[in-house]
Amino acid sequence: MIKKSDIALALLSGVLLVLGFAPLDLYLMAWIALIPLLLSLSGKRLRNCFILGMLTGVVYFGGTVYWVFNSVYFYGNVPAVLSLLVVMALCLYLGLYVGVFSILYGYLTRHSRFPALFLVPVLWVTLEFLRTYVVTGFPWSVLGYTQYKILPIIQIADITGVYGVSFLVAAVNGAIFDLAVLWPRRLDRMPLFERGPTIIGLFCLVLIIVSSLIYGVVRLKAEEKGHKIRAAVVQGNFEQEKKWDINAQREIIDTYKRLTIEASEFSPDIIVWPESALPFVFGRDERLTAEITEFQKTLGAYLLFGSVIVKGVKDDKYELSNSAVLMSPDGEVLSVYDKIHLVPFGEYVPLRKIFPFIGKLVAAIGDFRPGEEYTVMDAPPARVSAPICYEIIFPGLVRQFVLDGANVLATVTNDAWFGRSSAPYQHFSMAVFRAIENRVPVVRAANTGVSGFIDTRGRIKSRSDIFVEAVLTEELTVGSSEKTFYTRYGDLFVFFCIISCVLLIANNVNPNKEKGFPGFFRGNDRRKW
Question: What H or E segment, with its residue span, contains residue 430?
Fold first, then answer.
C-alpha cells in the first residue's frame, strides 16, 4: 500500500532534483535528492516501487524539460493540446527510467546484501547511459550536470565522463540513506559481519571522493600546454519567428556585420557566428553569398558560421542539411560540417514513413538530411570541430570529434527555440563537461545566448546573458596532442556499472534457487509482487 507520506517523499525527490540544475544551481540538493525516494521505497511491493519512481521521474523531468512545449507550440506551430501531450508523453517516457530504477532497487535490496551506497549509483548510472542511446537518445538532466560549477569534483570526467560524477552524487545519496536510516534500524540486531558491506562501502566511497578531490585540485593547478589563439563570438539575438522573415533579412545581415566589425578590433584568429546565423541558404542565393564572402575578406580572420545548405534534390524536393561552414581569411570555403544527430520533431519527424499522418500533424517541422562525417576543420594552429545545437550534449559524439584530431570545439546553436526558459542555461552547463572530458576548450555561439568560452579545465572564462546582443572575445590555449583516458576509451567506467548491474540481476532473478555468486549477491528476503 502506498501512503500519502510515500507520495509526498517521492514528489519531494523530484523537486530536489530539479533544484540542482541550472539556472537555480542549488547543486547541494543533488547530493540528498534521492533520499526521500529511497525512504518511500522501503518495504514496498515492486509495483508500488515503480509507481513511486514514476512520480519522482515525472516531476524531475517535468521541471527540467518543460521548455519542449515552447519549441513545439510556439515555433513548431503544433496545436497547444498536441504540444502539451508531446511534453506529457516525453516526461512519462523519461520517468520510466526512474520507475525501472525503483523496481530494481526495491528488488535488489531484498535479494542481495549490497548497501544502497553501491546499488543506487550502479543502477542510476546504467539507466542514465541507456537514456543517452535508447530510441533517438535524450541525455538531458543527467545527474552529474548539477555539479558543473564545482570544478574540483568534476575533473574526474576526463576519466569517467559525466557519468562518473553522477555515480559519486548517487553514491553519496545511498550512503547517507544507509547511515541515517538503515544503520540505526539494524544496529541492535545485526552482527558485525552483516554490517560489513556498509562499512567497506563507506570506506571505499570516502577514499574515492578524497582521491577525486585531490585529482581535481592537481588538474586545476596544472598549466595548460599548447598554442594561444584569440577567438570571438557574435550573438546576434534574433527571435525565432524573425530569423526566416524575408523582411528582416537585411537587418539580420547588417547586425552580424556590425557586431563582427566590433569583434575584429580584438584581432581574433577565428570569429564564430551561431547556428543558422545566415537568413538565407548559403551558396544558393548568389548575391548574399557574395556579400558575405567579400565581407569576410576584410576581417583578417577565419569565420565559422551556421547555415542551411542544399545537398541535392530528391522526389522534386531540395535535400537540406543543418551545417557549419568555415571560411578562410581570403573568403574561401575551407570546410563544411553537416549535423549528424538531428533533433526529433525539430529537424526531422521520426516514423514519418511508417505513420504518414504524423507528418501532416507537424507540417511546420523541418526534415533535414543527417550528415555522416565527423569533420575536423583546419584553422591553424586550431583544428576545429563544430557540434551543432544539442549535439554537444552527447558525450560519445563529441568525443569522436576530438579522437579524430579536433583541439577546439566551436559549438554553434540557436536556443531561441527554448524561449526564456531554463533550457539555454542547462544547455550551456553541459558544454563544461565536454571541455573537461576531452581537455579541449569550448567556444559556444548561440543566437540568443548563452554564448561563452570554457577552458580545458571547465572554467567558464566568459558568458553572455540571454536575449541580448553580445560580442565576446577570449584567448584560448589549444594544440595539446595528449588525448584523455575518456577520449581514448570512452565510457569504459559505465560499462563496469552495466556489468555489475547485469550480474546483480542475473544472480538474484530467482532467489529461491541457490546458484551464482554467494555472499553479498544474495539475501534471504522472499517478498513477492
Answer: helix 423-438
Angle at 231 between CA 226 and CA 232, to 5 degrees: 165
Q: Residue for cell digits 547586425?
A: 255
pLDDT digits (tens, 9 = 90+) for 475-526: 999 977 789 999 999 999 999 999 999 999 998 876 555 444 444 444 544 3
* DSSP symbols for 207-266: HHHHHHHHHHHHHHHSPP-SEEEEEEEEE----HHHHT-GGGHHHHHHHHHHHHHHHHTT
SS3 letters across 110-165: HHCCCCHHHHHHHHHHHHHHHHHHCCCCCCCCCHHHHHCCCHHHHCCHHHHCHHHH
Beta bridge partners of 324: 306, 337
Do the beta carbons of residue 94 and residue 142 sit within 8 Å?
A: no
49: annotated active-site residue: no
| Contacts with 118 (C-beta within 8 Å, 6 or more apart), sequence order | 171, 174, 197, 201
pLDDT digits (tens, 9 = 90+) for 21-70: 999 999 999 999 999 999 999 999 999 999 999 999 999 999 999 999 98
339 is catalytic: yes
pTM of this prediction?
Answer: 0.93
Angle at which helix 395-403 crosses helix 423-438, to 10 degrees, equals 40
The residue annotated as part of the active site, out of 44, 49, 243, 339, is 339
Given 389, 391, 437, 501, the catalytic residue = 389
Is the dihedral angle over the CA atoms 183, 186, 189, 192 positive or is it negative? negative
User: What are the tens digits of pLDDT across the range 379-417?
Assistant: 999 999 999 999 999 999 999 999 999 999 999 999 998
Instruction: Give me the CATH code for the 227-488 domain, please.
Output: 3.60.110.10
Q: Catalytic: 314?
A: no
Domain boundaries, the chain: 4-222+491-521, 227-488
At residue 271, the 3 state secondary structure works out as: strand
Which residues does 189 contact at the CB level (< 8 Å), separation at least 6? none
State yes or no: cis peptide before 23, omega within 30 of 0: yes
Q: Of 44, 91, 128, 275, which residue is the catalytic one?
A: 275
- Run of H or E residues at 473: strand 470-478
